[in-house]
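Need tokens for this chain, all 67 residues.
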Amino acid sequence: MAARGIDWSTATLKREMVGHEVTVGGLLFADDHHWQNSEVDNPGGTDLWRATDIEIHPMTYLKIEDE
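Here are the structure tokens for all 67 residues:
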């Protein structure tokens, strides 16, 4: 997005989007590197920090809905 002049840096996203309803678009894929951290794929595991191993890559758009 930087090549298009759009700032998706963490600082900008936090400043612009925290507290707003946001729509995220992109492609879904199963990230096999995180199955062990997924409650769905590894129920009862010891280092669960996500619900599934599904991720959005690449993100193609972000839209603040309540503006």
